[in-house]
Fold this protein.
Amino acid sequence: MSVEQLEALKNRLAVLGHRDTRLIAVSKTHPASKITELIRAGHRDFGENRVNEARDKFPQIDLTGIPPGSSPIYHHIGPLQSGAARQVAGLFGYAHGASSRSAIEALARACRARLEKDSQFAGMRYLIQVDLTGEESKLGGMAREVLLAEPPHSSEALKFVGLMTMGPSDGDPGRTRLAFQELRRIRDTSFPGAELSMGMSGDFEIALEEGSTMIRVGSLIFGSR
Ligand SMILES: *Cc1c(COP(=O)(O)O)cnc(C)c1O
C-alpha cells in the first residue's frame, strides 16, 4: 500500500519536473514494518518528530541484506529540544527543527562527543526552522531577526545545511505560498545554495513551485494517522 503511494508521489514529482527534489517519507506513528517495506523498495529518507518513538522504532527496522549504500537516512523533523540533543545525535542524520541557539549548541556538543567516540559517525547536518507565520507558540521556529543576527553554527560534527518552515496551520494556500516565498528570499539573500525544507502532504506542490529542495510527506504515503 505505502509502496504504491510512494511510487505515485514520485511519478507526480517527475510530472511536475521535480524528480530530484529530496522526498522525506514521514513515518511518525507508523510501525517499523512500514519503513522496512519502503527501504526494500529502494527508499532512503525517513522523518520522525518524536525522539522516544524513533528510539523504540529504529532498532526494529529490518536491514538484513540492505547494502550500506542503500541504508536509511533518518531526519528529525520535530522541534529540537536541548534536553533531547544527546538522543537526537545518536539516532538521526539530519535535524530540521532547530529553532534556538541554545538547542543548536547542545546538539553541537552532543555531536562532538559522538565524533570523538565513534569513528563511523560522519557528523550530523541541521536546518534552522524559521517562523514566518507568527504562530511561534504553536509551530515553533526562530524569528527571522534572530536568524539574521549572526551566522549559524557550523562545524565538522554539526553542519548547517539549510532552512525549514511550515505553512500556516489553517492551510490557507495564499498565506502558505507567501511563507514559502519568504523562506526562499531569506535563503537567496543570506544563505545562497542552502537547502529549503518546505512542503507536506497538503502543500508540497506550492512548495515545489516556490523552490523547495526537500519535502516532508507523511499521510499521502502512509495514510492518515
Ligand atoms: C507530521 C509532519 C509532516 C508530515 O505531515 P503530513 O501532513 O502527514 O504530510 C511534515 N513536517 C513536520 C514537521 C511534521 O511534524
